[in-house]
Amino acid sequence: MSKSNFSHVQNAIAFISGYKKFTSELNTDLKSIGLAPESFFMLHILAGTTDQTTTRLADRLGMNLPTATKLIDRLVSDNYVHRKPHPSDRRQIRILLTADGLKKVDEGQRIYASFVVSFKETSPNLAEIIF
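RESULT FIELD:
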C-alpha cells in the first residue's frame, strides 16, 4: 500500500471514530429530553419549512423511505408532528410541526448548542472537521 493510500485509510478511520463519538455523546445529551439524534434532526428540518414530505425528509437525512416513515409515525404518536394533505396535490402529504414539536425543537437546539461547545472543548481536532 502506498503512503498516500495508507494516509487516506487512516483519515477514514479517524473520521468514522469521530462520527461514532459525536453521535454517541449527542445521543446521550438528547436522550434527556426524550429524543434520538435522528428525531431532533428531522424536527429541526421541519422547523424551517412548511412544505416537507416524507420523501424529502428521507433524502435530507440520508434515510430510506421506510425508516423515515417509521420515524414520522413515532413523532406523530408523540404529538410532535402531524400529516396534512397538500392543498393542490392530493397525492402529497405534508409533514408539519405541532406546537409540542416546536417546543421540543427549542429544547433540542439548546442542548445541541451546549453539546457543540462541550464537544469543541473535549475533541478540538474532531470538532474542526465536523463544524
